[in-house]
Amino acid sequence: MIGLIRGYIHAVDAVNYRLGRVIMYGIFVLMGILLWSSISKTFFLPTLWTLEMAQFVMVAYYILGGPYSIQLGSNVRMDLLYGEWSTRKKAWFDLFTVLLLIFYLCVLLYGAVSSTAYSLGYWGTEPFSFFAGLLTGSEEIGRMERSSTAWRPYLWPIKAVMIVGMFLMLLQCLSEFFKDLLRIRGEVL
Predict the structure, then answer these.
(1) Nearest-angstrom CA–CA distance, 145 and 156
(2) DSSP per-residue string spanning 46-77
(3) Of 5-9, 109-113, 126-130, which gets the smallest average pLDDT?
(4) How many Å apart are CA 145 and CA 142, to the nearest integer?
(5) Pseudo-torsion of CA 154, 156, 160, 165, nearest 10°?
(6) Helices marked H in the chain — which ranges?
(7) Cβ-contact 124, 140 below 8 angstroms
(8) What pLDDT, on the 0 to 100 scale, is given for residue 81?
């Protein structure tokens, strides 16, 4: 069982580490979009797509970079008491708090799936069955949701990024949960 847990930790950490190292450079994409926005507004006709595209890139940067941030422990933490605790006491506290985070991420993931199904034209209350129906051919994509701006892009791609990001963050939190369990048992990671 310990070998299976270690394999899960290694696989999830490897995927999120590699993805995080790639997504880290998304800030340059964002800078390029905003630079083009400034140049086009100054010298040419202003473009319609730059502000909204910058928002989409920022969402992808933030959501897909979250698992990498959790893995590195670079999230904000109050060190008033935590810094003085033993490794075992920290693991017990982290074990409890990661369970709360897992619950919160499950709620967010359900919301992301529901929102994506809505953006694909599904008006019902069972978004998971809608996606299963898309795979089997029993459901069809309806009238797709578009942004209300002048550019009017489809919203399902960024909502799909939210699903992937929330799912990867959930997997990373489970990895952190297992790491805390191993620390409590005195295992070396």
Answers:
(1) 7
(2) PPSSHHHHHHHHHHHHHHHHHHHHHHHT-S--
(3) 126-130
(4) 9
(5) 60
(6) 2-23, 26-43, 50-72, 87-119, 127-136, 156-185
(7) no
(8) 83
Count how many residues are written for the chain.
189
Question: pLDDT tens digits, residue range 113-158?
Answer: 999 999 999 988 899 999 999 899 888 888 899 999 889 999 999 9
pTM: 0.90
CA angle 62/168/118 to nearest 5° reads: 75
Position 172 confidence tier, pLDDT thresholds 50, 70, 90 = very high
Long-range Cβ contacts of 24-31 (<8 Å, 24+ apart)? 24/65, 24/68, 26/57, 26/60, 26/61, 26/64, 26/65, 27/61, 29/57, 30/54, 30/57, 30/58, 30/61
CB 157 within 8 A of CB 103: no
